[in-house]
Amino acid sequence: QVQLVESGGGLVQPGDSLTLSCTASEDFSSLVVGWFRQAPGKDRGLIASISNIGGISRYADSVKGRFTISRDNPKKTVYLQMNSLKPEDTAVYYCAAKRPGWDYDGWGQGNQVTVSS
């Protein structure tokens, strides 16, 4: 099972941008990678994913047009570029990986993002 480590979170103001990174312990080019988030009192939900072949990305409606997921397989890293951040984006962000057609089973430790003025 690949090990994932997130980085790049922090405290930002509304309207700011932030980029999260998810770095794998080994080659994960064959895996689908997703970014999830969990706000206080809410369930963890998938907000973006990127396929293993072709780098096809999908987004939840709540982040579509503001967030961009990308991957750099030689660097074993997936990024989440977050623009026009809102207070409701405040959450712990997780990345996870899976084989196509399977459930996500490799999770990072989570990274706090706080959007507040």
Verbal overview:
The protein has 117 residues and is an all-beta fold. Helices cover 0% and strands 49% of the residues. Strands 2, 4, 5, 6, 9, 10 and 11 form a 7-stranded mixed β-sheet that branches. Strands 1-3-8-7 form a 4-stranded antiparallel β-sheet, with no helix packed on it. A hairpin with a 6-residue loop joins β5 and β6. It is globular.
Radius of gyration based on Cα positions: 13 Å
Number of helices: 0
Secondary structure: number of strands: 11
Give the CA-based shape.
Answer: globular
Q: Determine the strand fraction and express it as a percent band.
A: over 45%
Q: What can be said about this structure in brief?
A:
With 117 residues, the protein is mainly β. The protein has strands at 4-7, 10-12, 18-24, 32-38, 45-50, 57-59, 67-72, 77-82, 91-98, 106-107, 111-115. Helices cover 0% and strands 49% of the residues.
Helices and strands, with pairings:
Elements lengths: L3 E4 L2 E3 L5 E7 L7 E7 L6 E6 L6 E3 L7 E6 L4 E6 L8 E8 L7 E2 L3 E5 L2
Parallel strand pairs: 2-11
Antiparallel strand pairs: 1-3, 3-8, 4-5, 4-9, 5-6, 7-8, 9-10, 9-11
